[in-house]
Amino acid sequence: MKTTKHTLVALVEDKPGVLNRIASLFRRRNFNIESIAVGQSEQSGLSRMTIVVDGDDAKIEQVRKQLDKVVEVIKIMDITDEESVARELALIKVRATPSTRGEIIQIVDIFRANIVDVAVDSLIVEVTGDEDKVDSLIELLRGFGIRELTRTGRIALTRGSAGPLLVEEPKEVKVLRQPLKPPREETESPPDW
Q1: DSSP conformational letter for 175
Q2: What DSSP element (H or E) covers 67?
Q3: Distance (Å) of CA 63 to CA 10, 44, 53, 67, 69
Q4: CATH hierarchy code of domain 85-151
Q5: What CATH number matches the domain at 4-82, 3.60.10.10, 3.30.70.260, 3.40.630.30, 3.30.590.20?
Q6: Sign of the dihedral defined by the CA atoms of residues 107, 108, 109, 113, in that order
Q7: pTM for the full model?
Q8: Are the C-beta atoms of residues 158 and 164 closer than 8 Å to each other?
Q9: Which of 23, 64, 131, 142 has a Cα at 20 to 30 A from 5?
Q10: Hey, where are the domains in the chain?
């Protein structure tokens, strides 16, 4: 059975505990989440979650259906086979000496990355791109000595004008509120307890 990297994208309510509930569902099914990125979406009160996980198609589809049943999950899709744009951000702290600094700067320029901090003995490089680009830059910088490294994990959007996770805005509904109980008349006295 062939396993592939799947990219699941979910629109979820922006509430405490939602991330934990979703991660627990993967844990209970014995899946290792390769990366998970969560942030605000274009719709207020909703967050967008991008989850990258390895698994065969049938098991991933089963997990996707179970996630769809979670109350706080508005929509979830597997966009692995869709045309999409996927990016990742990495910050890399690299050892730098006066003799290696110029070479590091040249490599960073080739990858269209940015140097965001300079210290006497190190540089912090910011790189954004697909996973292969980030991996390639990290591999080249290993020769100089990587002191620290952090990556966001994959974030992705499908190409085209109609996004699969768009939720229609609810139409304004006027609700006339009726009191649950009729108001107590002035002549009634409160109970004596």
Answers
A1: -
A2: helix 57-68
A3: 13, 26, 11, 6, 10
A4: 3.30.70.1150
A5: 3.30.70.260
A6: positive
A7: 0.75
A8: yes
A9: 142
A10: 4-82, 85-151
